[in-house]
Amino acid sequence: MSTSDPTASPTTFDLENRVDSADTTLHSQRCAVIALGSNLGNRLETLQGAVDALADTPGLKVKAVSAVYETEAVGGPDEQPNYYNAVVVLRTTLPPRDLLERGNAIEDAFGRVRTVRWGPRTLDVDILAYEGVTSDDPQLLLPHPRSHERAFVLAPWLDAQPEAEVPGHGQVAALLQALGGADAQGVRRREDIRLTLPE
């Protein structure tokens, strides 16, 4: 991978070589859903940068990006800044483990520091679901644990993929309604800002 890509510098993960052949096997594409979150720095700029970095990833095509939702931090230290959250739906030839490594590399590129559990962070990149795959590996739980209980995940997910389903839990729309709807748990859709889908 070219060293001019800022998301490549924090890792030796050689993504481009791993997907050279996968890029040509369109039949092996799967749908994956990624959650993005930020509560430090320029949150909107960071989320857009993460969307752009995903779009620049070989073997991956961004298909939909949700609206931006704002919510108070859940868990962790008190008095954290509010989060901006969004969901990205993509098609990919990358297997889940490689997609996770790419997400971690993007987090690192945006200055993610992992010192305090559920502490403030510049960027979260989490795989919510990966088509046809469930996993109880502690390093890669699929579907993402507790996603079905959190409005700040479900509201943008429903926005980006109205027909979505959380494997083993049901339709995203029904799960969100059971929590109290799109503004449950203090979640607020930000109509004044938005992310753009890469061309």
Short description:
With 199 residues, the chain is α+β, with helices and mostly antiparallel strands. Helices cover 25% and strands 24% of the residues. The strands form three sheets. Strands 1, 2, 3, 4, 5 and 10 form a six-stranded antiparallel sheet that branches.
Structural class: alpha+beta
Outline the biggest β-sheet.
6 strands, antiparallel
What distance lies between the first and last C-alpha atoms, to the nearest angstrom? 21 Å
Q: Count of helical segments?
A: 5
| Percent of residues in β-strands | 15-25%
Shape: globular
* Rg calc: 16 Å
Number of DSSP-assigned strands: 10
Mean pLDDT: 86
Helix content: 10-25%
**What's the order of the H and E elements?**
HEHEEEHEEEHEEHE
